[in-house]
Amino acid sequence: MTAAPLLVPARLCAPGKPTPAEVTGPIIHREEARTVLGAARLVSLYDQTSWSEGPVWWPRERTLVWSDIVGRRVLGLREDGAVDVLLDATAFINGNAVLPDGALAHCEHGRRAISRSDGAGVATPIVTAVEGSRLNAPNDLIVAADGAIWFSDPTFGLENPKQGVPGSSESGRTAICRIGTDGVARRMVDMVQPNGLAFSPGGETLYASQTPEHSEGEIAIFAFDWDGNGLSNRRRFATVAQGVPDGFTVDRRGWLWSSSGVGVEVFDDAGSHLATVPTPGLCSNCAFDSDQTRLFVTGGAHLWMLTLG
Questions:
Q1: 94, 53 in Cβ contact below 8 A?
Q2: Where is 279: in which H helix or E strand?
Q3: Predicted local distance difference test score (pLDDT) of residue 215
Q4: Burial of 20 from C-beta contacts in 10 A (0-12 / 13-18 / 19+)
Q5: pLDDT of residue 213
Q6: Angle 229-232-235 (CA atoms, 0-180°, nearest 5)?
Q7: 10 Å Cβ neighbour count for 174?
Q8: Backbone dihedral region of 105: left (phi > 0), alpha (psi from -120 to 50 degrees) or beta?
Q9: Which residues are registered as beta bridge partners of 43?
Q10: Rounded Cα distance, 295 and 290, in Å
């Protein structure tokens, strides 16, 4: 029997150095942010995607993974600045996360699935339905400390033919869902077009954004208490002045770094607005590396990086 050929990623960009982004430095709103952001400057790493989303740091490969949703590719930025195609001709993959075994998990608009891959070949669906109904178009996902996968399930990918396959919701619901370590998916709470997700450092608080476009519902980041069994005490955590809080991440301090229409907005764990990091174009999402010394930011055709103090 002939061995299967080794899959070699297609290289889009040779190794190289980042270039400064043409934008002002961070705008400090509260003094406690100055030591972290006072000297930070944004640089451009890549600018040839159709729509960048879903960044996640992949420790095993020391690679920043992100999606070009419209281009139907999952890309990888290497430490030397090279950019490779990890997955090609995807089913409109959006959010990405790293599983406990080091593999990647993905949100697929096209196959209406949560899938997994090893960063090469074709992703394999692991969940396509929840509580008897087909998923809508999973958007963003995170992996909790216990290994459970949490994901948002709005209908954006069913409504925009550039980012998915047109269709309708079987359940008539948009929700935050959880795939437990038993592999069973359950809806945890309904929201109006849920989007970004993140846990607090201790895992006791789940943050989820709600970003309706043509329906009623407040555009905001909400917080929920998580006790290991259910979500409770829903409250508004923060809003952004321009655009929507599409995607976000939380650092070890408990600060939440959210996308917005002008860049990245930074909030402390009480929801106080600490700083704004302007980006040259619309910001969609952001993610830290393992050491949390670099923040990778996606938006439009771009991948940017902010080195922190």
A1: yes
A2: none
A3: 72
A4: exposed
A5: 87
A6: 150
A7: 25
A8: beta
A9: 20, 305
A10: 10
For the chain, the C-alpha Rg in angstroms (whole number) is 18
Asked if residue 250 lies in contact with residue 225, where contact means CB atoms within 8 angstroms, the answer is no
C-alpha distances in angstroms, 9 versus 68, 78, 87, 172, 196? 15, 12, 8, 39, 29
* Ranges under pLDDT 70 in the chain: 1-8
> Helix or strand or coil: residue 30?
coil
Distance CA 95, CA 247 (A): 9
What DSSP character marks residue 82?
A: -
Joined tokens for residue 297: 């930011």
- The answer to whether the CB of 222 falls within 8 A of the CB of 271 is no
Residue 245 · residue 219 · CB < 8 Å: yes
Convert 207-242 to b/e letters by CB count within 10 Å (16 or more is b). Answer: bbbbbbeeeeeebbbbbbebeeeebeeeeebbbbee
Which pLDDT score is estimated for 48? 96
Long-range contacts of 121-129 (CB under 8 A, 24+ apart): 121/7, 121/87, 122/87, 123/87, 123/90, 123/91, 123/93, 126/179, 126/183, 127/179, 127/183, 127/185, 129/185
**DSSP label of 84:** E
User: Which tokens in the block code for residue 153?
Assistant: 């399930």
Helix, strand or coil for residue 261?
A: coil
* In the block, residue with structure tokens 């451009």: 44
Place of tokens 């991440």: 249
**2, burial (CB in 10 Å: exposed 0-12, middle 13-18, buried 19+):** exposed
Please tell me the predicted confidence (pLDDT) of residue 2: 47
Cα gap 43→16, rounded to integer Å: 13
The reply to whether the predicted model has a pTM over 0.85 is yes
